[in-house]
Amino acid sequence: MREDLQKYFQFSPFFVDSKSMSDLDWEKFQDKIDKIPPPLYNLLVDDKTSRFIEALIQKYIQINTRGPEIARIIRDVILADIYIGDMPAQISSKLGVDQNTALEIARAIVSQLFAPVIEDIKKLQLQKFGKLPGSSTPQSSPQRPLQHIPGEDLPETGGNIIDLRSKS
Questions:
Q1: 113 lies in a domain?
Q2: Would you state the pLDDT for residue 60?
Q3: What does the mean pLDDT of the chain come to?
Q4: Is 89 helix (H, G, I), strand (E, B) or coil?
Q5: 29 vs 6, 21, 40, 119, 155, CA distance in Å?
Q6: Which residues contact 168 (CB under 8 A, 6 or more apart)?
Q7: Do the Cβ atoms of 131 and 138 come closer than 8 Å?
Q8: Does residue 13 contact residue 44 with C-beta atoms inside 8 Å?
Q9: Residue 165 domain-assigned?
Q10: In this structure, is the dihedral angle defined by the CA atoms of residues 35, 39, 43 and 45, taken in order, positive or negative?
Q11: If you ran DSSP here, which 8-state letter would residue 148 be given?
C-alpha cells in the first residue's frame, strides 16, 4: 500500500513537484489549477493518470526513471504552459528519446489519457497559444478572445441559398 501511494505522488501530474515547491510557487500553481475546468483537474489528481504513466514507462524501458518528467509534461500541457503540438519535442528533450519514440509516446498520451478531456485542453490551448496542432496559422491572438462569426455554425446548404418552398 505504501509503495502504491509513493508511486502515486511520484507520477501524479498534480503532486510531482509538490515537495520541492516554495509556498509562493505552490500558490501560483494553485491559481492556475483554479482556472481550469473540473474534468482537467480530475485528470491531474486521478490515480488512473499515475497508473497510466507507470504503464507507459514500463512499456518504454528506456524511460524507466523518467516517470516524473512525463507527469510534468502532462501537467504543463493541461495547464497550457506547454503547447500540445510541442509535446513530442518536449518528450524527446526531457526523456532523452529519439523523435519517433517521442511521437509514439505523445500519441499514446493524447489518444488514451487526454481523449475524454481533449475539448477542454483544446480550449485552453487555443486561448493561450492562439492555435491548435495541425493549424499553421493562428486562429486568434492569445490576447484577444475568439469572436463568433455569424453563420459559421450553420450546416452546409449547398451554397448560400436555402430552398424554403414546400416540396409537396
A1: yes
A2: 83
A3: 80
A4: helix
A5: 21, 9, 14, 22, 41
A6: none
A7: yes
A8: yes
A9: no
A10: positive
A11: P
- Would the pTM count as exceeding 0.85? no
C-alpha grid cell, residue 122 = 483544446
Residue 146 has what pLDDT? 38
Residue 53 has pLDDT above 90, yes or no: yes
168 belongs to a structural domain: no
Identity of the amino acid at 111 = S
In a domain, 33, yes or no: yes
When divided into structural domains, the chain yields a total of: 1
> Range of 42's domain?
2-129
Question: pLDDT tens digit string along 20-42?
Answer: 878 888 888 888 999 999 999 99
φ, ψ dihedrals at 127, nearest 5°: -65, -40
Residue keyed to cell 518528450: 91
Name the one residue in this structure whose C-alpha cell is 513530442: 88
Whole-angstrom distance, CA of residue 26 vs CA of residue 17:
9
Q: Can you read off the three cell numbers belonging to residue 134?
A: 495541425
The residue type of 164 is L
When comparing pLDDT for 33 and 144, which is higher? 33
Rounded Cα distance between 112 and 132, Å, is: 19
